[in-house]
TrEMBL record:
This is Sulfate permease. It comes from Adhaeribacter aerolatus. It comes from the Bacteria. It is found in: Membrane. The chain crosses the membrane at residues 20-38, 43-61, 90-108, 115-135, 166-189, 201-222, 265-287, 308-326, 346-375, 396-427. The gene is sulP.
């Protein structure tokens, strides 16, 4: 299979990847800490996973733009796993075993499952994530949320839900946090203006860095001159301060082998492996749609990378990891081009733990919420809903169901509901062989003709994509839909994306009786 056909020089993109990695770091740091708290794990565990995801998994990954770390979708599994096994140390063994299972899945090429997720459901997931980011960050933006930063579920630990929390926040807002949030939001929005991007300073320095730096300064001014506006410690980043190797050893936890003969250990490990793998495949598929270069990730390699990451994280006392769509979409929005941006975010996480904890703990969460508000809007622009609606009922309905289901439950449950609706529409179509493959030799270049069958449904998408990926370079490919009464939109989209990237392999593509469709661009 041929993936990642766009292969830029890592050095040539440092000017974009380093600032993007810094922005991802600012988003990832409070998420790592918050997910640790929500999971009932030691505070340092989430940061360990973020560091491993950035420094190790980034280079093993099958994706140039995905960012790995602890995922909010696994918090309940982690919480129940620790309770089932009796200690966090025993749970770490389950994380290591889960990583080993993911390695096996990768070598068994189970990553092909990712090709079977309908585009409408993936876009619905991205739009829902955008809406959740906006709704969940409003209370932090106002300085009135005691729940962990980055929580994604509709029903919250404090008994409120996503919408009632916003109402509560307006009644309990902190003026200082709101001022910092508004100033940060204005800076991030202005920094994205094309007029400013013409100047090298605005290209090299990320707006999030300026916003965070100014937020720290503003809060210091409040503390010294306007105490009533000073932001409460509960609304600042709270990173463990490590003073030397001894403190670092005290923060880290290491696995215990005492539950090795307990069957429940293997049930927990298998659950982590399956859920983490599915969430990773969904995230990678979604980030491929955001990639401006339209690269396709190597999903089997991604599963193997996640397996190595979970083994290392478990050995070092970290939480289980996945490729995380919030961090990955932030990476794309910040201009990341290659896996260097994810690596840079991991380096910054490590440096923040070892040397910068005191400084990081002065960052107001309202400034970080401003960054996520902008990321959320980019994922769920009104134009996306309009474009999806124009594709017709069979594309729009699974899309909107996925959005609503994720919004009112959580990521995994919502995706399952969206997939169920998508499968219902798929099963309405008859499954037949999608094409007839014919090879024709000519004097100048090899000609390959793919005659599409009478009915080409979404079930045929993976087969067609794999066939197109294996077509030889320097060939002439004719895709003939003369005999087709129906070709599913997802298949048409895959054909169009193949045609756009075919020149990179010097393949000439000719479409006969294949309808043109607009490929939705995610920015």
């Amino acid at each position: 299979m041929k993936e990642n056909t766009y292969n830029p020089s890592y050095l040539a993109n440092l000017g974009k990847d380093i600032p993007a990695g810094l922005v991802v770091f600012f988003v990832a740091l409070p998420l790592c800490l918050g997910i640790s708290l929500a999971s009932g794990a030691p505070l340092f565990a989430g940061v360990v996973t973020g560091i491993v995801g950035g420094i190790i998994v980034a280079w093993l990954s099958g994706s140039e733009l995905s960012v790995s770390g602890p995922a909010a979708g696994l918090t309940v599994i982690v919480l129940n796993g620790i309770e089932t096994l009796g200690s966090f140390e025993s749970f770490l063994l389950a994380v290591v075993l889960a990583g080993a299972i993911q390695l096996v899945l990768g070598f068994l090429k189970a990553g092909v499952i990712g090709l079977y997720f309908p585009s409408s459901v993936i876009r619905g997931m991205l739009a829902a994530i955008g809406l959740i980011l906006i709704l969940k960050q409003i209370p932090h933006f106002l300085g009135a949320d005691e729940d962990f930063f980055g929580e994604m579920d509709f029903f919250q630990p404090d008994g409120r839900n996503t919408f009632s929390e916003i109402g509560f926040a307006f009644s309990q807002l902190e003026a200082g946090a709101l001022i910092v949030g508004v100033v940060s939001l204005i800076i991030v929005l202005l920094w994205d203006k094309p007029q400013l991007k013409r100047y090298s300073f605005f290209k090299l320095i990320p707006g999030a860095l300026v916003a965070v730096g100014l937020a720290i300064v503003l809060n210091l001014i409040f503390k010294n001159y306007f105490p009533a506006l000073a932001i409460a410690p509960s609304h600042l980043v709270n990173l463990p301060v490590v003073d030397g190797i001894a403190d670092l050893k005290n923060e880290l936890r290491f696995l215990s082998l005492e539950k090795l003969a307990d069957p429940s250990l293997y049930i927990v490990a298998f659950t982590i492996a399956i859920v983490a793998s599915l969430e990773t495949l969904l995230s990678v598929e979604a980030v491929d749609k955001l990639d401006p270069h339209k690269r396709r990730s190597h999903t089997n390699r991604e599963l193997r990378a996640q397996g190595v990451g979970n083994i290392v994280a478990g050995l070092l006392g970290g939480l289980p990891m996945t490729a995380v769509i919030v961090r990955s979409s932030t990476n794309v929005a910040a201009g990341g081009q290659t896996r260097v941006s994810s690596f840079v975010h991991g380096i910054f996480l490590l440096l923040s733990v070892l040397f910068l904890a005191s400084l990081m703990n002065q960052i107001p969460l309202s400034a970080l919420a401003a960054v996520l508000l902008v990321v959320g809007y980019k994922l769920t622009k009104p134009s996306l809903f309009k474009a999806q609606f124009k594709l017709g009922f069979e594309q729009f309905f699974p899309f909107i169901v996925t959005v609503v289901a994720i919004l009112f439950t959580d990521l995994l449950i919502g995706i399952c509901i969206g997939l169920a609706v998508g499968i219902f529409f798929i099963l309405k179509a008859n499954y037949k062989s999608p094409y007839f493959y014919q090879r024709e030799e000519s004097s100048d270049r090899q000609t390959i003709r793919l005659r599409l069958s009478e009915h080409v449904s979404f079930l045929n998408k993976a087969s067609i994509i794999l066939t197109l990926d294996k077509l030889p370079a320097n060939s002439h490919v004719i895709i003939d839909g003369e005999n087709s009464e129906y070709i599913d939109y997802d298949v048409l989209e895959a054909i169009q994306e193949f045609r756009k990237a075919a020149h990179e392999r010097n393949i000439k593509v000719e479409l006969l009786n294949v309808p043109e469709v607009g490929v939705l661009e995610m920015h």
